[in-house]
Amino acid sequence: MEEKMKRIISLLIVIVLSTFLFSQQVPRDKVVLEIGTGAWCTYCPGAAMGADDLVENGHDVAVIEYHNGDPFANTYSDYRNNYYGVTGFPTAFFDGVIDVVGGSHSNSMYSSYLPHYNTRIAINSSFTIDLDVQIVGEDFVAYATIEKVAATSSTNMVLHFVVTESEIQYNWQGQTELNFVERTMVPNQFGTTLDFSQGDIINLNLPFTFNEEWELEHAEFVAFIQDTDTKEILQGTKTAFEGLVPMFGSNVMAGPANLGVQFTSYSLPSDGIESWEWDLDGDGEFDITGENPFYLYDTQGTYDVTLRIFDGTEYAEITLEDYITVTDGSDISGNLSGAWNADNSPYSITGNAEIAEGDFLSIEPGTEINIDNSSITIYGLLNAEGRDDEQIIFSSDNSWYGLFFNNTEEDNVLNNCLISDAAGSAVAIDDAKVDIINCRIFNNTGTNTGAAIDLNNADDVLIHNNVVTNNSNVGTSGVVRFTGSIPTVTNNIFVNNSGTTGGVITFKNSSDATFLNNTIANNLCDTGMIFIFSSAPVFKNSIIINSGEMFNLINGTPVVVYSCITGGYGGLGNIDADPMFVNPSDGDGPDFDGLSALWHLQEDSPCIDAGHPSSTYNDVEDPENPGYALYPAMGTLTNDIGAFGGDGFADFVGIEGNDEINESIVQNRINVYPNPFNPFTNISLRLNSQDRQLPVSLGVYNIKGQLVKSIINKETVTNYVYRWNGKDNSNKTTSSGIYFIKLKTNSSVALRKIILMK
What are the tens digits of pLDDT across the range 691-722? Predict the structure, then answer.
């Protein structure tokens, strides 16, 4: 009896001690569900749906999905999958200790997951985690307070902090989005060691970078304590941004004067903000409103930028100090935006630069750009508008890698530019819209691409009134190469270039372009000056002179009509004769100066009036001598063969020539950037030379056709870039909505829709 009482007393003591020990434990905040997954995985949709359903049904779960073998995998996800020894996907882990291997292609794993969730949520914890994430300046900081509220048998513990993103639009295995994707772990995949030897409370500050490509509105921040010996997760929690959070970014943060900066608000909540106020010049005053303003910084220096937002109840404000830096233009790289002019030149590009999609760079007459071992890639708009007497210079003291127009829908313009000394391609165009007019492209070299001009899948390209000379290619790509491209090529001079097996002019893969009124002479290539592969180009009204083989044909045949071609060629109206240039270069190839030579026709040239007899191809008429051609065309109005016939070429007298150019073939155009806009937009005009000499009008109209703002009123212009500040003729701010920019010239009317946003 006495022994029995002792056992009862001992049992009661154990019960009392156990009750005392665990009475201070707290409920588990979140069950942490970690899933090894991949977009390639046939059965992973079921796991994703199961996790989504746990959340949708209100269960206290923090989900983290570690991707493998797809674009969302990273160092952290790979480590965690290896940490758990995942060999089959999907595999789900509940608090690190219960695993479920497998899934379904079409059915949710919710019914399989729920019992394991219930098991873990019922287990109390000896820890609490208080988690808060804030923006401090330009950085994100996670503030975590971990408190040990009861005794624990765990001795080796770490805190993991994880950023996840949901609602990522992505097509995979019949699904259209991804949720709870692990984006980063802070400070790394190993976590932060927790040592309670100095007390029961640990405060951690964990700074991290939130990638601008991630959507903060769809982000969750998960923190959990894990026993590194058993892998059991002892407590978990999660949070997200709430309330009014001002945030912004910009297309560029540094660049030379007249830096065009497009600001974008990323403030939260995305649909609850009523107003945005900006101090963009750091003077302490809010001077611009609107969600995403554009601003032109014209003075060197550094600028603080402040954004204040209002949701109808409260304000929130953020200031980023020294956010914008306007430089002197001596060390340029990265994103380009704004307007460059002769006053601030020369501009020196020392690292690869680009014009991003939606951005623009306007280069004014007389500007010099020196590029050193770098390239300029254009995804947005480059508007380089020189003049006959103030050309824009792209060059290098050493070498550079050219201008690359890549998949841009904008109307890019290179007008009156001198482009030289590039290695690769001076101008490369891949599925983009570009006008190359009145340019001199010379002294460039290439191997795998056309040394002067290289087109790939580019039909909407105009090559007009250019001199392409003294370029060389030692590979198979020629000096001018067209691949799957059908550009408009008119009134150009291609002289004193050299090529090898790729010729000087190369047509590949259905490049059935028409060369109209071009002069091709004194080039050097023994294997065939014009290389044609699976293409059928047309040469019309052109001079094609060569001392060696004319064509290298592989599964392609050119059409040549009404042209002056060495050795003759079967086709209507062709002649084989000396074109009788006024002062051509002294020999073939780039060793002889084709730029200062004179490629006009002498008065008794057989090419005068020998082009296509249709009036469609007539030379420009001399207004002082009706019935006769305007110089440099000669004779009657019948087309002259060569670059000076038809729509005509400059009265080209070498690089110093500055006579009037007849370029009526060039359409008048309007470019507007940014668009949509607030509060300013820049209007760039493209006028043919005839309309440049005559009064033009430029105005802003509403959707009713009513004039809102007159910018140019029947004036002859010398400036081709204008700014509209969203105000009408009475200097009153106009309402947000759709407007039209209308350009009226002597020859045409051009319209461009714009959107003013408030």
Answer: 878 889 999 988 667 889 999 998 888 777 78
d(CA 749, CA 163): 54
What's the pLDDT band for 417 if we cut at 50, 70, 90?
A: very high
Q: Which amino acid is at 634?
A: M
Task: Find residue 429's DSSP bridge partners.
Answer: 405, 455
| 427: phi then psi, degrees, rounded to nearest 5 | -135, 115
Q: What is the 3-state secondary structure (H, E, C) of 18-52?
A: HHHHHCCCECCCCEEEEEEECCCCCCHHHHHHHHH
The secondary structure element, H or E, covering residue 671 is: strand 669-673
- pTM comes to 0.73
First to last CA, the chain: 90
pLDDT at 321: 93
CA distance 469 to 584: 12
* Arithmetic mean of pLDDT, 141-152: 97
Q: Give the whole-angstrom CA distance, residue 342 versus residue 366.
A: 5
**605 has a pLDDT exceeding 90:** yes
- The Cβ of residue 313 has, within 10 Å, a number of other Cβ atoms equal to 8
Q: What is the DSSP string of 585-651?
A: -SSSSTTS--SSSEEEEPTT-TTTT-S--SGGGPPPB-TTSTTBBPTTS-SBSSPPSSTTSTT----
Q: How many CA atoms lie within 13 A of 599 on its CB side?
A: 39
679 vs 356 pLDDT, higher one = 356
124 touches 149 (CB < 8 A): no
